[in-house]
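Feature request disguised as a bug: please show the residue count (150) next to Diacylglycerol kinase epsilon in the output. Example input:
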Amino acid sequence: MFPLFQFLYLLYGAKDILERGCENLHEKVELYLDDKLIPLPAVEAVIILNIASWGAGVEAWNMGTPEKKYAPQRHDDGMLEVIGVYSSFHIAQLQIGMSEPVRLGQARNVKLKLLERLPVQIDGEPWEQSPAEMSIGFHGQATMLCNSRQ
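Example output, currently without the count:
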């Protein structure tokens, strides 16, 4: 079954490379980090992270040269990391360590204003979203047990 999923990802990725449906995303989305409008570069996707691992194990925030204006990513600091990618080809480059993402910022609250209908994916679930305002932040945090003998 696993090769079937890889084949489907290949098909959808190839389709995305040819169609570029999220080109000019900066004209279709407004990004606010802690209520500050962040100008979007020519990215085709905005990714909001609350853990280090994304996209089959890529630690996107930690790739490349660290920027002094951003803190290292931590799972327990209440911050969300926001990155951008230029294309599905750029995502493939991230997968094999040939590129780094565009760091857009860190915030406790992220707001996206979708100005037109766009594809959205949260926690692996994709859908087409009508124009909307989406707010993302921490609601609560669960206590987690860990081994103290390390």
